Hints:
Elements: E1 2-5, E2 12-15, H1 18-40, E3 45-51, H2 55-71, E4 74-80, H3 86-98, E5 104-107, H4 117-121, H5 135-142, H6 151-162, E6 171-175, H7 182-191, E7 195-199, H8 206-210, E8 215-218, E9 236-239, E10 243-245, E11 248-250, H9 255-258, E12 264-265, H10 273-293
Parallel strand pairs: 2-12, 3-4, 3-5, 6-7, 6-8, 8-9, 9-12
Antiparallel strand pairs: 1-2, 10-11
Helix pairs in contact: 1-10, 2-10, 6-7, 6-10
Bound molecules: NADP nicotinamide-adenine-dinucleotide phosphate (NAP).
Amino acid sequence: MTETDTPNTAITTEVIDGKAIAAAVRKQVAERVVHFESARGRAPRLVTILVGDDPASHVYVNNKHKACAEVGIASEDERLPADTKPELLVRLIDELNHRDDVDGILLQLPLPAGLDDDSMTELISPAKDVDGLTTANAGRVMQGRDALVPCTPSGVMILLEKVGAQLTGAEAVVVGRSNLVGKPVASLLLAQNATVTTCHSRTRDLAEVTRRADVLVACVGSPKLISGDMVKPGAIVIDVGTTRGQNGLVGDVDFDNVHGVAGAVTPVPGGVGPMTIACLLDNTVKAAESRADA
Ligand code: NAP
């Protein structure tokens, strides 16, 4: 982590180094892989399913396989054409659910037209649902029970832990309420005894709510939505948002404006982003360990 003093203000803002924290998570995962392999005679295995030709999805899936190889997780890459019939995908997921050597199944979203993201995701066995997107895992997260937690929310919680956030009794504000990010982040914060408020597009006075936050998590997809005057001095600000702009990725937080107000803030890129794949690897090993122990 790096610390920089901002002139003309009393606040020193810590820039949370997601790359370094993600590297530490990957190192721990690699150690668990070695341990699993020596105990079980095989490496944990992830299978990705990519349907169609979306270029961004191809990049994401390739990155996931590269990351698996780096920590010793075995991975398989199932690719299907965009006009794949639902029955074929259903059969593939069913086969993978029944394969004993497969620990994690990742269905890359969004699926092409004709295939429903939610109903296809729901077919994945909850024990192998390393994206944490089935209703079984979502429900367990909401109930504060052990689960395969969605990767980005899990990454947010690790960043908060590493920065030393005191969550018990803290006012936490989550901006965004998607099933993928906002809702699980809110549930995880609640499980850590924060007082949680979730904002969304119909929230009446966003700034009035965000200014109360000791911990502010922005997961919207609206570039620079959160300015310095929306942040309580000293707050911890986690920026999940990523919008592709002309000069690369832009977060939901106006970093330069918030720097010098917040106590700590994640940059984009280099904050939450690197945590997501690290947590996917972590979930794959967790799924392998849990299945082996079951
Ligand atoms: P999403 O499904 O589009 O949800 C966005 C949420 O933001 C919705 O709940 C929406 O409210 C709310 N919202 C929109 N405009 C708002 C405004 N002006 N004020 C307050 N709330 C507003 O997006 P998502 O999948 O959660 O992703 C959010 C962002 O995180 C995106 O930029 C995405 O690219 C990024 N992301 C990053 C990672 C990573 O690894 N770094 C992973 C996942 C997602 P309503 O519900 O009322 O529509």
